[in-house]
Design goal:
about 140 residues, three-stranded antiparallel beta sheet, Signal_recog_particle_SRP19, RNA-binding
Amino acid sequence: MDGDIQNIKKWIVLYPIYINSKKTLAEGRRINASKACENPTCVEIYDCCSHLKLPCAIESEKAYPRDFMQRGRVRVLLKRDDGSLCNPAITSRKQLMLQVAELVPRHPGRTKKQEPATTSTAGASKSGKGGKKKR
């Protein structure tokens, strides 16, 4: 187990903020906002990396330094010790972030979560009498 922990320390780190479309570049987003996804979680990122056949691990006790209230990060292995790629389609961190950001909205847990949110906001916007006050 000790060998695994040392190997994991050399894997690349993927924080959810890197692919969060709600964050700015100054807050830590690393990809284009149009290609990023809304509020990804570590579990969703982990599942997407597993789907891409990449070895990965969740570190739930770790936090992003600029936003320490959001806990968790994912460690991913792109290249093996001999230098060969784990998934030949993904050669860099940037490609990994773009692939994961594309897969997260289609995550099975996310589609269930998003449906009630869209119906509740639509209902709230219809109710109430808004308007400009006359002087």
